[in-house]
Design brief:
single chain; Arc Repressor Mutant, subunit A; two-stranded antiparallel sheet; 43% helix
């Protein structure tokens, strides 16, 4: 059995904040459209310079997202490569429904 060693945390606070905000954007897109990809997030929330372009892949590595399928990338540097699409987990979707319902109730008051 291989021994696993803890991985160092390579993200700065700024990079962590970017990923947290990008996840919020991704959740909103997935809620509104039914699915989301890295291209969708980059379109609405451009990558900051301090974040390596591959780090966006870690965006969906939470319990809030579930893999739904694949599609062709619209990013020119990907040259039409295949990327994953994600949807919201049941828990995340229920949470967002409650949040939007509360906002709608507050707006009507």
């Amino acid at each position: 059995m291989k021994k696993r060693y803890p991985q160092p945390d390579l993200f700065t606070d700024e990079q962590r904040r970017y990923l947290e905000e990008a996840r919020r954007v991704a959740m909103q897109i997935a809620y509104e459209q039914g699915s989301v990809s890295a291209d969708d997030v980059r379109e609405k929330f451009p990558t900051v310079e301090v974040l390596h372009r591959n780090a966006i892949g870690g965006l969906f590595k939470t319990q809030d997202f579930v893999h739904r399928g694949f599609k062709k990338s619209s990013t020119p540097s990907r040259k039409g490569g295949i990327i994953c699409t994600y949807g919201l987990s049941e828990t995340a979707e229920q949470f967002l429904r409650k949040q939007f319902k509360r906002k709608a109730e507050l707006c009507q008051s």
